[in-house]
Amino acid sequence: MIRSHTFYTYRLLQAIKGFETINKWAAFHHETLDGRGYPFHLKDDSIPLGSRIMAVADIYTALTEDRPYRKGMSAQEAVGILSSMVKNNAICPYSVSMLVNNIEEIEALHRDVQHEAKRTYDYVLEPVK
Questions:
Q1: 15 and 6 Cβ atoms separated by less than 8 Å
Q2: Of 33, 64, 86, 121, which is most buried, counting CB atoms within 10 Å of its CB?
Q3: Is 53 helix (H, G, I), strand (E, B) or coil?
Q4: Is residue 11 a contact partner of residue 23, using CB atoms and an 8 Å limit?
Q5: Phi then psi dihedrals of residue 68, to 5 deg
Q6: Residue 96's CB: how many other CB atoms inside 10 A?
Q7: Any idea what DSSP says for residue 3?
Q8: HD-GYP domain: which residues (predicted)?
Q9: Superfamily assignment of 2-101 in CATH?
Q10: Under DSSP, is residue 40 helix (H, G, I), strand (E, B) or coil?
């Protein structure tokens, strides 16, 4: 089921005129440069830059955010994993280098957005408690 979300994203957004680029970025963000990704097993230049950027952002966020079942990794640990994925030709080296070159700004923004999201979440759930 988890792997199917990108296929269903593709099918749903395909029906919306003007969303062609957004559709590709969203639907292809689990594709890998070596062709072992999903849902379409695209590789190399078949994967748009927007999808490559989304892939790196998605992986970085998944690694660094706290989850109910584990604490998030440090930025340095996450960059180590991303660098390994670049060496294995899974993700875009350019996108990873842009992340690394802007890590302090990205981390500050990430903290602010996460804090605001939690505040909003708590506010919305307050009446339920």
A1: no
A2: 33
A3: helix
A4: no
A5: -60, -25
A6: 21
A7: G
A8: 1-115
A9: Hypothetical protein af1432 (1.10.3210.10)
A10: coil
H helices, E strands: number in the chain: 6, 0
| Dihedral of alpha carbons 45, 50, 53, 59, sign | negative
Whether 46 contacts 72, CB under 8 Å: no
Give the separation between CA 96 and CA 82, rounded to whole angstroms: 7
Rounded to whole angstroms, the Cα distance separating 99 from 53 reads: 9
For the chain, which residues make up each domain, given as ranges? Answer: 2-101
Tell me: the pLDDT tens digits for 71-129?
999 999 999 999 999 999 999 999 999 999 999 999 999 889 988 988 998 888 777 66
Secondary structure of residue 98 in the 3-state scheme? helix
DSSP per position, 82-122: HHHHHHTTSS-HHHHHHHHHTHHHHHHHHHHHHHHHHHHHH
Half-sphere exposure of 36 (CA within 13 A, CB side): 6
Q: Which residues are paired to 70 by β-bridges?
A: 67
Global confidence as pTM: 0.87
Residue 25 tokens, joined: 């970025």
Rounded distance between C-alpha atoms, residue 75 and residue 27, angstroms: 26
The answer to whether the beta carbons of residues 57 and 26 sit under 8 Å apart is: no
